[in-house]
Amino acid sequence: MQYLSDIEIAQSAQIRPISEIAAKLDIPEDALENYGKYKAKIDADRLPAREGGKGKLILVTAITPTAAGEGKTTTSVGLADGLSYIGKRAAAALREPSLGPVFGVKGGAAGGGRAQLLPMEDINLHFTGDFHAIGAANNLLAAMVDNHIQQGNRLNIDPRRICWRRAVDMNDRQLRSIISGLGGKANGVPREDGFDITVASEVMAVLCLADSLSDLKARLGRMVVGYTYDSRPVTCADIKADGAMTVLLKDAIKPNLVQTIEGTPAFVHGGPFANIAHGCSSVIATKLAMSVADYTVTEAGFGADLGAEKFLDIKCRAAGIKPNAVVIVATVRALKLHGGADKKQLADENMDAMVKGFPNLLRHYRNITGVYGLGAVVSVNRFPSDTRAELDTLRRLCAENGIKAVECECWAKGGEGAKTLAEEVVKLCEQDNAGFVFAYEANATVREKLNTLTTKIYGGDGVEFTADAQKQLREIRKLGYERMPVCVAKTQYSFSDDPALLGAPEHFKITVRSLKLSLGAGFIVALTGEIMTMPGLPKTPAAENIDIDETGRITGLF
């Protein structure tokens, strides 16, 4: 059977004026700041107060990702459409795609098949310019730090201890480590420098966790850019860059409104990666969606050990929100990979591999229900190669472990294909979520928090610190910041910090090689294993297949 590509499906869909989409949620036209006909930013100050309180919040997460793909964004979009299909007032609150993966490995990240966001090309490319604004603000601060040193260094900054890196929204390994300021005295002070991908910038995290423009400015001001010769932290406010950075971000902080193929409203805003940042869309967009919709579907990046953990322990803690239901996306193909199947033979029926891979799903489910005390349903994202025997076996395994699992066909059928999933989610939302707890106590130490995550969430035996990390931990403790939440940067491909350990590994330790103080975001970043804050392009980048013809029609965005 010949299937249309995602971009062909998107380009053939009927897209509605954004004012029509806004009207579904009673958002008045004077609250819209249009970016063309089909996308707009929302001025939340112009929204009327809604009676009846906040709507229900549904978190979509997944098993540990594999090369087979799980379809988390597709399921999120499809579930929002499914809720609309059964007559609910629904909206999605999702992240913006980064150009890094779009041109690197994904080729697009706005859903797939009949469960996509529109305008698909715009969302996957420059969209409304939010990421460019974040990169510009990040790099303005970097320029002002170096200029401060060049102009006399009144703050006594140690150039060897500048921790503020430059940013670009592209996978470019060549920029990971560089020497800047070469060429003589007029060109600055030579020092080691480097770039992070924009989605790893603390500015991205700050924008996504701020709840207002004034909060954004305050958070920017608290960001640590380096240390003095006597080890005192120097902040963005000390450099006097917080005001100018806020000016650059004054439009970027406003949520973006778009639509699904079926016309369900979707707020797409912010996009920190979950393997190197906290992996959730903005607090402002989530709260906005909850204020105008009865059901808001949001997504957290990668597997539940990364995205969902940070959504719950960082975003929910900071924003004062909690989900009413959790959806865990799984596929037969991915479970077979976790069970040792050859990725070239995923279309072949392999019951043994799927059974061996099932513990990965089971651990994620037990974390959500047992550690966090939340109700969850497993959404089995169906692929054409899945056999009925495999699907039935997976459902039986789930039932034997007390797991409700439903098949989802939103890729092929849109909202209709997610009808059963939507009905199960509504049932979960009607239950009491008062049993929700965080994985760790707020006043625990950094070591205690990381040990808790390793043992309770990852399934390991504990955490180890390199000599550098131990030194940084002592400094953080001395400065009085040890009680902040932790944001673990680790591989997305395993519960451990070793991407080769698939399934549900045990008896491993997480090695923390570095700790970074992110005062603006309000957490401490723990870098583990070989995780990089600047990805590289693969051997065959997706960019090689992306093109445009003389009529302006784009191809290759999957």
Describe this structure in words.
The protein contains 19 helices and 25 strands. The protein has 558 residues and is of the alpha/beta class. Strands 1, 2, 3, 4, 5, 6, 14, 15, 16, 17, 18 and 19 form a 12-stranded mixed sheet that branches. A 4-stranded mixed sheet has the order 20-22-23-21. The two termini are 18 Å apart.
Topology readout:
Blueprint: H1 6-12, H2 18-23, E1 32-34, E2 40-42, E3 56-62, H3 72-85, E4 90-94, H4 99-103, E5 111-112, E6 115-118, H5 120-124, H6 130-150, E7 157-162, E8 166-168, E9 178-180, E10 191-193, E11 195-197, H7 202-209, H8 213-222, E12 224-228, E13 233-235, H9 236-239, H10 242-248, E14 256-260, E15 265-268, H11 283-292, E16 295-299, H12 304-319, E17 325-330, H13 332-338, H14 351-371, E18 376-381, H15 388-400, E19 405-408, H16 410-413, H17 419-429, H18 446-458, E20 462-465, H19 467-479, E21 486-489, E22 509-518, E23 523-528, E24 547-548, E25 554-555
Parallel strand pairs: 3-16, 3-17, 4-15, 4-16, 8-11, 17-18, 18-19, 20-22, 21-23
Antiparallel strand pairs: 1-2, 2-14, 5-6, 6-14, 7-12, 9-10, 12-13, 14-15, 22-23, 24-25
Helix pairs in contact: 3-17, 6-7, 6-10, 8-10, 13-14, 14-15
